[in-house]
Amino acid sequence: MTNPSLLILAGDGIGPEVMTEVRKVIDWFGAKRDLKFDVSEDLVGGCAYDKHGTPLHDDTMAKAQEVDAVLLGAVGGPKYDTLDFSVKPERGLLRLRKEMDLYANLRPAQCFDALADFSSLKKDVVAGLDIMIVRELTSGIYFGEPRGIIEEGNERVGINTQRYTESEIDRVARSAFELAMRRDKKLCSMEKANVMESGVLWREVVTEVAKDYPEVELSHMYADAGAMQLCRWPKQFDVIVTDNLFGDLLSDAAAMLTGSLGMLPSASLGAPMANGRPKALYEPVHGSAPDIAGQGKANPIACVLSFAMALRYSFDQGDEATRLEQAIEKVLADGYRTADLLGEEGKQPVSTSEMGDAIVAALDASL
Ligand code: NAI
Ligand code: MG
Fold it and tell me: What range(s) does the Isopropylmalate dehydrogenase-like domain occupy (predicted)?
């Protein structure tokens, strides 16, 4: 049997720095768990523009379509701010998401006990929190037509259109139900069926899909009420599925329940490939952090947790993903903190590579 394939696109800024630490973890699983990957590396974002004049070369795009999973660092930086929109680093990422048709964006909000004090919410509200928001990523109001700014009478009118087809709702709902089956079998669907027809259809289609998942307890909530409930008592949720716009807001809000941008992973999944695995792109939520790039200050945990998601959702290695998450939990409990996790405390932070080494040592200790 051939090894599963992984394409690494480290990108710009802190992307390569955090990816170096992920490589240590990947190597550890190869050496100690006999979990070997065929890893290839390529360019995306500003570094690809520097070399090829485009933020994503066609060959890289073709490779991304073939591998079992793509792991991406971050793209962008001030050096590229003045580039034409068509070749900006972010376009490389957008092209990947679009051409791989990654319609389900998974954003966990997970609270590591050692960081519960770090949240802006009370400790007992967030301690042990582990929820997953599934955001529809390829349709909805960010893409719907008509759109634009038009003249009407003697004023301008800005227009965007929320548009969802039945099949678009069906497929993201299925992703969410599949996920719920692997977790606590609880799914809450959020829309605004009270004021939006697209929300009415959303609720109908999700309810129809639920018939294929009788074990999953489905509930519906208006998205504004959902936002309140997320702040009030987030632990009532397991998996949440929602559209592109509401998902953008709710996932950012939920993520911050748990602390730093340096801790947040994500997965974007598409349709199953011939081997049954979904097309998949894993990446930290954060950007290229030019303010700290090149200084060894970046927190690699968001990117390491993104690899843990790859283990779970692309490679059927849920137990090994849990092992990795527990190693991170241990490192945090032992007091390791990169600068972003220290807040106003006057403690000395560990560097990016010290954090990576500590995670590998904790993995060793798990055997
Ligand atoms: P950012 O996420 O890069 O940084 C925001 C703040 O969080 C900064 O103070 C940064 O130092 C800190 N931060 C981010 N990740 C961290 C980590 N792992 N460890 C410690 N601190 C961390 O967002 P910003 O500043 O808005 O954008 C910077 C560049 O990144 C821009 O060019 C932007 O377009 C790009 N970007 C790329 C994304 C991607 O590749 N997916 C997402 C967001 C922004
Ligand atoms: Mg956002």
Answer: 5-359
